[in-house]
Amino acid sequence: MALDGKVAIVTGSGRGLGLAYAAELARQGAAVVINDVDAQTAADAVSSIEAAGGRAVAVVAPVGSTETAKALVAAAVENYGRLDILVTNAGVLRDTVLWKMSDDDFDTVINVHLRGTFTAVREAVLQMREQNSGGRIICIGSPTGQRGNFGQTNYSAAKAGIVGMVRTWALELKRAGITANAVIPVAATAMTATVPYFAAAVEADAAGEAMPAFFRHDLGFGTSDDVAGLVAYLASDAAADVTGQAIGVGGDRLQLWSHPEAVVTAYHDGGWSTEALEESFPVEFGSQLQTVGEKFPPLPDDLQRPAPTA
């Protein structure tokens, strides 16, 4: 198996995407530290991995604090003797439009997603550097962090920040043989289950049936298990040369996201005054302005569902 002898931490892994990542890492031979805020959920996750022949222990604590990050690394070292892989997946949502978003809405999401990623990675890297045997940092991003999404100021800021940190860590950790990558999943979750556009896919998944090809192929929208393979690949020795990347995965689709690059460059002798911009900006840049948000194609007639009634 690809990860025999490796030890992994997966934050937010009691259920959903996080549990799928942890289960696949265990299936590939890694011992796993499960993390969740609910003790029973964490215990059930450990039991499911052990029932499948894997090894797992749990740390019940909310991510964000340095104390939790230290506890996660300590659990890996005390139970399995080392740490090789960290997957930062824990997250919460507090969605609302900008003018209704409270300080607590913003701070809670930033603390769990962005600070929780930072503190966990910092403690993991301290252990990996001490071991002097390399390591794998895999941070979970989102299409929202890449393109924005209505009502998710806090979440888009956190997920964009995660990708920015990953690019920096890829530079800082290269000499230590530690890779850092971001995974951008598109999958059926508790959040997408409430979106009418995805109803046919969510219904099929809940019934244990294959999702329609439109979702899996055209949209790259699939199950949690569809994402787990990429996480395990990036954790393996086969991906030793892959670092600093943002990689999208969902359904049958795999994507390599570009880093931000200038799409148009123009020059004006003496600099760009307001008057020069008024004259030249529409000509030089108007046709190249970048889109924001996700743009989904119309659903085929056979996949449309009636709008929910009040």
TrEMBL record:
Ketoreductase domain span: 6-194
Record bears the keyword Plastid: no
Keywords: Oxidoreductase
GO MF terms, alphabetically ordered: oxidoreductase activity
InterPro entries with a match to the protein in the record: KR_dom (IPR057326), NAD(P)-bd_dom_sf (IPR036291), Peroxisomal_Beta-Oxidation (IPR051687), Sc_DH/Rdtase_CS (IPR020904), SDR_fam (IPR002347)
Sequence similarity: Belongs to the short-chain dehydrogenases/reductases (SDR) family.
Record's protein name: SDR family oxidoreductase
Species assigned in the record: Naasia lichenicola
